[in-house]
Amino acid sequence: MAAPTMDAVVALCKRRGLIFPASEIYGGIANTYDYGHYGVLLKKNVIDAWWKTMIQEREDIVALDSAIIQHPRTWEASGHLAGFTDPLVDCRACKQRFRADHLGELQCGRKPSKHPGEADECDLTEAREFNLMFETTIGPVQEAGSTVYLRPETAQGIFLDFKTTLQYARRRPPFGIAQVGKSFRNEITPGNFIFRTLEFEQMEMEFFVPPDEAGQWYDHWRRARLDWYVGLGIDRERLRLRDHDADELSHYSSATADVEYLYPIGWSELEGIANRGDFDLTQHARFSGERLEYVDANTKERYVPHVIEPAAGVGRTVLALLCDAYDEDEIGGERRTVLRLHPAMAPVKVAVLPLLRKDGHPERAREIYEELRRHVNAEYDDGGHIGRRYRRQDEIGTPLAVTIDHQTLEDGTVTLRNRDTLAQDRVPADELVDRVTDLTR
Ligand code: ATP
Q1: 157 Cβ closer than 6 Å to some ligand 1 atom
Q2: Considering the entire predicted model, what is its pTM?
Q3: How far is the CA of 83 from the centre of ligand 1 (A)?
Q4: Helix axes 314-325, 6-15, angle to 10 degrees
Q5: C-alpha to C-alpha distance for 352 and 368, rounded to whole angstroms
Q6: How many Cβ atoms are within 10 Å of 87's Cβ, its own excluded?
Q7: How far apart are CA 381 and CA 353, in angstroms?
Q8: Which helix (H) or strand (E) element contains residue 266?
Q9: Which residue out of 194, 200, 228 has the highest number of ligand 1 atoms within 8 Å of its CB and is therefore the one to mutate?
Q10: Which atom of ligand 1 is nearest to the CA of 316?
Q11: Mutation probe of ligand 1 site: the residue of 47, 226, 269 with most atoms within 8 A of C-beta
């Protein structure tokens, strides 16, 4: 079908408790969302798939989980304290604050049909640079404590642990360090659901290479990262790689490409792949006084590795999966909403449904459910008409449903229903574990 609207995706997420506004009983808080049961499972599948490609399928990347609050010098060295800013303007009339570089997408506080600055009464200040890092204090007394920051990206923790990792993991470039965790940015642009939030999980990998191999590894990761999203089942036509123009590049980067997805808000960044050169290790060496370089034990050759960084967002991947999978069709004259998620991404792999709540159906169904859930995430549901139960599973993207009926008790077969083809195959119950695990990998 045609791409869904963001409103349709938001409504489904709320209705089925995947993702909903945080602090709702207090009226919510801007750009902050909570993940409910199915949302947690979907997010976990994304993160697991990322670890699988980075760690299980390669031998040149190691895992790390560094602290969210690091030494404040980290952000001086990285350039975030001085340069991680957005230009903001205030409106003296409506008292709202806007990103100066996003005015064309925003609504005037008093006349929502106009952009800020366009209505007669608008009175915008000059743009001022506003740092996106959240500040807090270590120690009980604010004045006497030291100011620290919630990390705005996970990458810097990796650079701080470069030397330790090099030693304990006994690696030589090219090798990578991968990390998944929360980052925090004081984003003021509202809306667009989980696309831009104050706190979000990143999946970042810093790949350290000999300087003369940086170009070839940049090309490798650029392509590999696009392919990863295709492997998650996202439509290739709705994905693209966009190389940054020279004037878009960050101060540390000699080349950057974004993997973009065609969200309901238009083509937007899912992930950035950057050739960061030796900027980060050189800066942290300068600020810390540590030597952050690779020394070859045999040749004694020493150099500062260059870094290729694929930096992805969990929330933006979840949103791309949801937008891509969302579909509406009609079965027997009834509308249905269905998430056509890749089975590996689906929060629940199989639903087990007794046709009746009597005649031994629930007992046999529970036995089958107990067996299946030892292997995959399964759900038991005996509430309501069978059609309604199928619909509930379709909405959360469950690829398979097993129905137990009177024939099951006679010949030991069940029906296995496919979410997309709607085919209902009669299969022996003792083949279910193999079939379901095969079909949902
Ligand atoms: P944007 O230009 O959209 O603000 P960015 O270029 O600042 O993004 P990076 O610093 O490259 O983003 O961060 C890497 C990834 O982290 C992004 O591709 C995105 O998936 C995710 N990300 C960054 N900021 C946010 C946010 N506020 N909310 C959700 N995800 C985010």
Answers
A1: no
A2: 0.94
A3: 16
A4: 100
A5: 8
A6: 14
A7: 5
A8: strand 266-277
A9: 200
A10: 20
A11: 269
- Written as six digits, the tokens of 441 are 């990998």
Amino acid at 242: R
Secondary structure in 3-state letters for 360-387: CHHHHHHHHHHHHCCCCCEEECCCCCHH
In the chain, the percentage of residues whose pLDDT exceeds 90 is 82
The closest residue, in CA terms, to atom 29 on ligand 1 is 196
Report the separation in Å between the CA atom of 313 and the middle of ligand 1, taken as the mean of its atom positions: 7
Distance 239 CA to ligand 1 centre (A): 17
- The atom number, within ligand 1, closest to the CA of 271 reads 18
The closest-lying atom of ligand 1 relative to the alpha carbon of residue 185 is 27
Cβ count near 366 (within 10 Å): 15
Number of the ligand 1 atom closest to the C-alpha atom of 313? 20
* CA pair distance 65, 29, nearest whole angstrom: 28
Closest CA to 68 of 160, 142, 187: 160
Cα of 389 vs its chain's centroid, Å: 29
Beta strands in 278-368 (DSSP E): 294-295, 302-303, 306-313, 326-331, 334-339, 350-354
pLDDT tens digits, 132-146 = 999 999 987 666 668
Distance 153 CA to ligand 1 centre (A): 9
Bridge partners of residue 147, in order along the sequence:
137
User: Which two three-digit tokens encode residue 47?
Assistant: 């993160």
How many angstroms separate the alpha carbon of residue 280 from the centre of ligand 1? 19
Each residue's pLDDT tens digit, 178-234: 999 999 999 987 779 999 999 999 999 999 999 999 999 999 999 999 999 999 999
Bridge partner residues of 240 (DSSP): 260
The residues facing 404 across adjacent strands are 354
Whether 185 is in the pocket of ligand 1, judged by its Cβ within 6 Å, is yes
Q: Give the integer Cα–Cα distance in Å for 98 and 155.
A: 28
Q: Model confidence over 55-110: pLDDT tens digits? A: 999 999 999 999 999 999 999 999 999 989 989 998 988 988 888 988 888 888 88
From 196, 221, 314, the mutation candidate for ligand 1 (largest count of ligand atoms within 8 A of CB) is 196
Q: How far apart are CA 21 and CA 14, in angstroms?
A: 8
Cα–Cα distance measured from residue 186 to residue 31, given in angstroms and rounded to the nearest whole number: 10
Which ligand 1 atom is nearest residue 317's CA? 20
Partners of 84 in the β-ladder: none
How far away, in angstroms, is 361 Cα from ligand 1 center? 50
Give backbone dihedrals phi and psi of 397, rounded to 5 degrees, phi first: 85, 15
